[in-house]
Amino acid sequence: MIESVAKQSPEVRTEQGSYESERLPPGPPAGWRELFSLQFAAPASILAGGVALYAMNLYFTAALMPSIVADIGGARYYAWVATGFLMAAVIASMLVSRLLERLGAARAYVLGFLVFGAGAVLNAASPSMEALIVGRVVQGLGGGLVAGLGFAVIRSALPERLWTRAAGLVSAMWGVGTLVGPSLGGLFAQLGAWRWAYVLLLVAALGLAALARRVLPGRSGAGSGAGPVPLPSLVLLSLAAAAFSVSSTVPRGWATGVSIAVGVLLLAGFVGVERGRAATVLPRQTYRAGNRLKWLYLTVAVLCGGVIPENFIPLFGQELGGLGPLVAGFLGAAVSAGWTSAQLFSVGIVSARGRARAIRTGPVVLTAGLLAYGLLQTADASGARVVLWAGVLFVAGTGIGLAFPHLSVAAMSSSADPAEGGKAAAALSTTQLIAFAVMSAVSGTMISLGGDSMLASARYMTFGIAAITLFGVVSAALTARRR
């Protein structure tokens, strides 16, 4: 499909839901130098900065939590600090296109950064764990909004020739957050200044809000006429994520199976409701017969699911490889390092055939890397084996970086209507956040199947995630196939 889309008229492309972005833009290909030129550096920094702020905050708080619990207590609510943030972010990301249509890019970003900053203030002043959870929910609302805007605003803030580079930059910020977040959070924890860590986030959010107000387009670049909020879809999707989260906390056995089954049924209900309503979370063209957007979103979800092992690899590195916390943390960042590195190459692919090949190849490389990591697992691993772990995890990450920028551009260019194109792009971040929340819960369930054996837990999780990413091989082929 991608190879042939340049031959179709704009009207045919819009009706069939093809990916307009895969025709080559006029003129020479844009490079990194143009993206970071004086004309475009400021908007590009805001798009990337919002996603980096969100991604860094995920790992930032994880590194601070032991110090927070030692100071204000509330260890029994430990998991809710992350759960509250993620669930709020998922809900906010679903509202991105509506807010973008109502407010425009500049005001929507300012709102997101200010809400994120307000949550940081609540966190810094929290006298108890319950208050911290409230702050994290507020922070999640703002974070989900700015993370979703990262892809949705590319279309209105930058010319089409820069879309692929910008999409690569924005998605690379997830990897940067993985690398910077733990080290920065660990530094504040080491200094015994966890409250000041949130003050730093507040300062960053206010700075980005001020810049967004100055350089991003107003409402004229965001489409016109915001539709009603898709409340039934939001409720079903939130309940599905909650059901998957519960599956990792209930006793192993029938309760786990019931929780997962309920989550699957709720997701099926979400799709059914979406197909029959005018107000939807995903673009309406997603549900048209023959449209490829549904396969695109499934591929994005699978690729993001492949990042989830990063949350547990440091634990496996310490328990199975005898690594110290710092080295184990860097081992866990190998997937994101591969993701970020591969994108530097992938965004330079300009031919339609090359982009289609990158989309098809990405899930294959990701799955192969995860399978190799699972096969290399052993107790009391030697230093050489640990190096092999890092290598295959890096390779797995390159599969994500190879495909992701082109999936992003394909989504944002799926319609000639700016409002629909913006909604398709915003749904990318919604898909990412849902995949992170659901796959984190599923990974926890897989790890619990290993019981007291850390080696068995590592293998269950790794092979289980690889089995899921294998579906991405099929969905990517359907996304990129020729008509």
In brief, what are we looking at here?
The protein has 483 residues and is mainly alpha-helical. It folds into three domains: 27-228, Up-down Bundle (Growth Hormone, Chain: A); 230-278; 283-483, Up-down Bundle (Growth Hormone, Chain: A), CATH 1.20.1250.20. The protein contains 19 helices and no strands.
Could you explain how this protein is built, in words?
The chain is built from 19 helices and no strands. It has three domains: 27-228, MFS general substrate transporter like domains (Growth Hormone, Chain: A, Up-down Bundle); 230-278; 283-483, MFS general substrate transporter like domains (Growth Hormone, Chain: A, Up-down Bundle), CATH 1.20.1250. It is mainly alpha-helical and 483 residues long. 75% of the residues lie in helices and 0% in strands. Helix 5 (96-124) crosses helix 18, helix 10 packs antiparallel against helix 11 and helix 13 (313-321) crosses helix 14 (325-332).
Give keywords.
mainly alpha; Growth Hormone, Chain: A; globular; disordered N terminus
Topology:
Elements: H1 10-16, H2 32-35, H3 41-72, H4 78-94, H5 96-124, H6 129-152, H7 154-157, H8 163-190, H9 194-215, H10 231-247, H11 254-275, H12 293-305, H13 313-321, H14 325-332, H15 334-346, H16 352-375, H17 383-412, H18 418-448, H19 454-480
Helix pairs in contact: 3-6, 3-8, 3-9, 4-6, 4-10, 4-18, 5-6, 5-9, 5-18, 6-18, 8-15, 8-17, 10-11, 10-18, 12-17, 12-18, 12-19, 13-14, 15-17, 16-17, 16-19, 17-18, 18-19
